Amino acid sequence: MTDEERGEHSSIRVALLGDTADDVDVAALKKWLERERSLERWVNDNTLRIHERPRAVATGDAGVTMGAGTDIVLVLIGAVTPGLFERVLAATESGVKAWRENRRSVEQGAPPVPEITPHAPPDGRADAPDRDPEAPDSEG
Fold first, then answer.
1. pLDDT tens for residues 96-130?
2. Coil, strand or helix: which one is 66?
3. 10-residue mean pLDDT series, the chain (140 residues)
4. Hey, is 47 helix, strand or coil?
């Protein structure tokens, strides 16, 4: 089992909730996020991976899955500073908002309601080196 599978990387979970959410929406949103310019550079340099994952706990009172049964998980690979994590989280939120607006304009009915949940490694580490690799170099 890899660190990624154990949840030992910083990650962001995106769930689509509500009666209108389905696996087609999940696949469409995943593709949208993979092509989102603000996330694309991190995907291309293998700093970020975007996966679909079966929802762990997603049942209502009757034991029926509420919304789509799959979540999207954005996993940051390697050393992650709080600043980088916040930029990826903001880009994810912006991408999800843009996808919802697009879906609203091309399909009937309300788009699913997103739930975006950031996750730090289980021991609370930020997986952070001394400095953000994207910050300007202060050493001259």
1. 999 999 999 998 888 999 999 998 764 444 444 33
2. coil
3. 55 91 93 95 94 72 60 91 92 97 91 91 45 39
4. coil
Tokens, residue 61: 């009172």
Q: In whole angstroms, how far apart are CA 68 and each of 40, 58, 130?
A: 25, 9, 39
Q: What is the DSSP string of 71-130?
A: EEEEEE-S---HHHHHHHHHHHHHHHHHHHHHHHHHSSSPPPEEEEEEE--TT------S
Return the exposure string of 19-50: e unless at least 16 CB atoms fall within 10 Å of the residue's CB, then b: ebbeeebbebbbebbbebeebeebbeeebbbb
What length is written for the chain?
A: 140
